[in-house]
Amino acid sequence: MKKTTIMTEGSIWKKLLFFAVPLILGNLFQQLYNTVDSIIVGNYIGSEALAAVGASSSVVNLLIGFCIGASAGAGVVISQFFGARDKEGVRKAVHTTVALSIAAGIVMTIAGVLLTPLILRAMGTPAEVFSQAVTYLQVFFGGIVFSVIYNMAAGILNAVGNSKRSLVYLLIAACSNIVLDLLFVVVLKMGIIGAALATDISQLLSCIFILRFLMRTDEIYKLRFREIRFYDHLLGKILRIGLPTGVQNIVISLSNVIVQSTVNSFGAVVMAGFAAYIKIDGFNLLPVLSISMAATTFTGQNIGAGKLDRVKKCMITSVAMGVVYTVATGILLLAFAPQVIGVFTKNREVVECGVYIMRFFCPFYWMLAVLQILSGTIRGAGKTMETMFVFIISLCLYRIAWIWGAMSVKHSLDLLMMVYPTSWLVGAILILLYGWKGKWMPKIPKRD
């Protein structure tokens, strides 16, 4: 299996690290090209267009988070079949996954185009940007089927350990999106429609390339167009594992909206300082999320192979990797805090506010690493419902309760920012209580 990473043998930390690195790079490029996209729109169309894209971003992020979560279900099923060397199981799971992505993409396209005005009104989108936001989202929804198929196909490749190939196609999407943005927006003056079309076409290209690879490969996960359909009970199994993660991502995104709205009540300086650090936070956590994804694939393959001892070692090794990384980066960020925030603004008050906010994040990232990575390990065993409840309780319900209680006592920024480390602590404790007992691991590997 030349184009795959077999995680059922060899050094555990090396398998995790070498699998995670392409995921880290891919997520990094995605963050970068989204930033470049906003820069082009803001500079060549105008501030209202930038605001329209910003107003649409929360909807887009919710959908992407849901798709990535749903693809996790397919990834777990495929990785378990792959680890068990069950060729027929892999074949059926791959074709069921692609069939599901096509059906879901079509439904989301139709619903999105029709419901966009209602969604944006419900979000309270300002009148001056409403029209452009509707146009951007409707054009974006017109091509969302390609994004859904790409994410599901990438989930297939990640499940068999081929994260490098996913990185290649993500780079194609990133580069083509930037080039098409410049062509449509700067050269052809197509405005907000051009920006949305650039995204759609770049997703189409990555979709074509990844499907082409799956159809031409000689590996056991080869895709054959005539075999794309729902097989046996696999659709139900994929949805049962994937939907909880998709719902989890949506609920957490909604809780972040509540936190942001509370931050807004402290004024423009605090908003700017918080926004500057949240961008840094996004980049800093990419390796943690990538290690978590690597742990999911590792667990799935080894459970399929019946090597439960390697799963236990993976749990300890991956959590240790995440803790070491977050402690090291937390120290570095705090040591160079003014310089880091200063990249985004030269306003002294905003920099001071950003540095102040950093102190509530950086010393405590290790708790978030425990939560994310241990959850990723457990997710690989198919226990996504349990991890969903942990995330909803700690990163959603707890945060809402904290904000309501703390802000009713005192309207204080430090009380608000404490919601992050305390919610991470709650999540880490819950996942440790559930995960460390090992009851989530099957006694006998499942063969469907």
How would you sum up this structure, described in words?
The protein has 17 helices and no strands. The protein has helices at 12-44, 47-83, 87-122, 127-142, 144-159, 163-187, 191-216, 234-264, 268-284, 286-304, 308-335, 337-342, 348-358, 365-379, 384-409, 413-417, 419-435. With 448 residues, it is an all-alpha fold. The two termini are 22 Å apart.
Which helices and strands, and how do they pair?
Layout: H1 12-44, H2 47-83, H3 87-122, H4 127-142, H5 144-159, H6 163-187, H7 191-216, H8 234-264, H9 268-284, H10 286-304, H11 308-335, H12 337-342, H13 348-358, H14 365-379, H15 384-409, H16 413-417, H17 419-435
Helix pairs in contact: 1-2, 1-6, 1-10, 2-3, 2-4, 2-5, 2-8, 2-10, 3-4, 3-5, 4-7, 5-7, 6-7, 8-15, 9-13, 10-11, 10-14, 11-14, 14-17, 15-17
